Amino acid sequence: MNNQKKIRIKFEKTGCAKYISHLDLNRLFARSLVRAGVEVAHSEGFNPHPKIVFAAAIPLGIESFCEFSDVKIIETDEIAASGGELNPEEFKSGFPQGINIIEVYEPETDFKNIDSARYNIFINTNRIGIDELNKFFEGDIFFVKETKKSKSTINLKDYICEINISDGKIDVVLKSNQQMYLNPENIIKSIREKYPGALDDYSIQKLQVHDVKGGVFE
Fold this sequence. Notes:
eight-stranded mixed β-sheet, 20% helix
């Protein structure tokens, strides 16, 4: 039986790649790793699938500079001979533009340790005063959170760990763990509900993932 090795791939999802869905991203990784010459381990059974797991499903249209995927690979003689060292350059060759491989390494943490994520939300604040927005986010903001299975009313304040509003930008840290997760799009939706017609185009970037101790997740 071939030895299997878990690796973690830290990558960016930018440009046109931000419109790749979570399901398509899984398929893309499976194909790209094969093109890069990496043998991915598969589950057993009637319908085997590649052992690829992502830390979270990032919403469509959001650029990210800190995505993570854990992959089980077959440990080849070449990998064993290298002492287990993984060269990210070898992985990059199979991936399309916009999926940028940053690091490849053996993980020492679990995705369960992820607690929150930092985003930059770029908006046009000409029609809303910065002081007014700050005051809005200081109070309770009750919001209907929808999933595929249910709807529930939540207080956004419970999901916002930190928020700083400046001219044209909202720098915000949101809960992003298995028990509490807030899509940053809901920040935009809450502003539009409070100030109809005040926001036009916007863009969102995911900058960093934090662990339960407040450090940078790796």
